[in-house]
Write a structure and sequence with these properties.
Metallo-beta-lactamase, Chain A; disordered N terminus; 306 residues; 11 helices; binds zinc ion; disordered C terminus
Length: 306
């Protein structure tokens, strides 16, 4: 069923039972809502070194993670998703690099959307954020945007204070893990119990080594522990998460245009899933040019890690 229909149907049932609250037993209400589970979905609007942005939607909240596409592109791609930019509750930032913040200033100013980031990222973006409402949070401290709970955690990357996120709506969890050189134990622990994951598969190591456009120093930066995840290292992270998470869907993102291909990234992660006996986990690959399909999460249940 389309998410809009599912959400609307659920609202009708909630309103009906609110009107008849005295006669409707709360347990009956809960039973009915189980047949109309709450909505938690996402669409990657674009991903790669030329710009990253992702739309997250729940029953009553829509927000972006990163705003690395131009404001014009963000508006055009949101329109394709039937989302009015004025309806967004915020833009949540992973870090200050321009491929994650390129459209931030114009987009947030024009549509009066608050930007959520930590203090060092806010400091790094000081000149960009002068006319933007900035809501600063602390790493590791959970907060909410509408009905979505956000838990930010540190990742190793060459930015001021880069983050990954565990986002939760009801008992459905979604992890955002992009722009990191490796995944320490704390990162894996922060993503325990997730139903969906956006993970960076930046490069195929062999293609990166063969690449003639990038100087040696850049290659070293990409391959470093504060650089970017290769297909193999992302597959290894996914494999490790399978022990603690009912992963329904993995979305691969931030693919290098020159040093990766969607089929290589997909094949590598697929091999790892199959080797672990998780052949039912779906894989999608986000691209720079096109929006992904709507990915609905929550077929299986879970709990927000405490
Ligand atoms: Zn990036
Ligand atoms: Zn970055």
């Amino acid at each position: 069923m389309f998410p809009e229909v599912l959400g609307a149907t659920r609202c009708v049932f909630v309103r009906y039972h609110q009107l008849n609250f005295r006669t409707a037993n709360i347990f009956t209400l809960k039973k009915i809502l189980r047949y109309f589970p709450s909505m938690f979905s996402l669409r990657v609007l674009g991903s790669g070194s030329a710009g990253n942005a992702m739309l997250i939607q729940s029953d009553s909240t829509a927000l972006l993670v990163d705003a690395g596409l131009s404001a014009k592109q963000l508006v055009a791609r949101l329109k394709q998703c039937d989302v009015d930019p004025f309806a967004l509750k915020g833009v949540l930032l992973t870090h200050e690099h321009s491929d994650h913040t390129g459209g931030l200033r114009v987009f947030c100013t024009k549509y009066e959307i608050p930007c959520y980031c930590n203090s060092l990222t806010a400091e790094a973006l000081k000149s960009e954020l002068t006319r933007v409402l900035c809501r600063v949070f602390r790493n590791g401290t959970e907060f909410t945007i509408g009905d979505i709970r956000v838990r930010p955690f540190s990742v190793p990357h060459d930015a001021a204070d880069p983050l990954g996120f565990c986002l939760a709506h009801d008992d459905v969890l979604f992890g955002v893990l992009t722009d990191l050189g490796h995944a320490p134990g704390l990162v894996l622990e922060s993503l325990r119990g997730i139903h969906g994951l956006l993970i960076e598969t930046n490069h195929d190591e062999a293609l990166l080594h063969q690449d003639i456009k990038r100087p040696w120093a850049i290659k070293q930066r990409i391959l470093s522990r504060h650089g970017h995840l290769s297909n193999a290292s992302a597959a290894h992270v996914v494999r490790q998460l399978l022990d603690s998470s009912p992963l329904e869907h993995v979305i691969l993102g931030h693919l290098s245009k020159d040093c990766n291909r969607p089929e290589l990234a997909t094949q590598r992660v697929d091999e790892e899933l199959k080797a672990a006996g998780h052949s039912s986990t779906k894989i999608s690959c986000a691209t720079q040019e096109a929006i992904t399909e709507t990915i609905m999460l929550g077929a299986s249940s879970g709990t927000f890690p405490s």
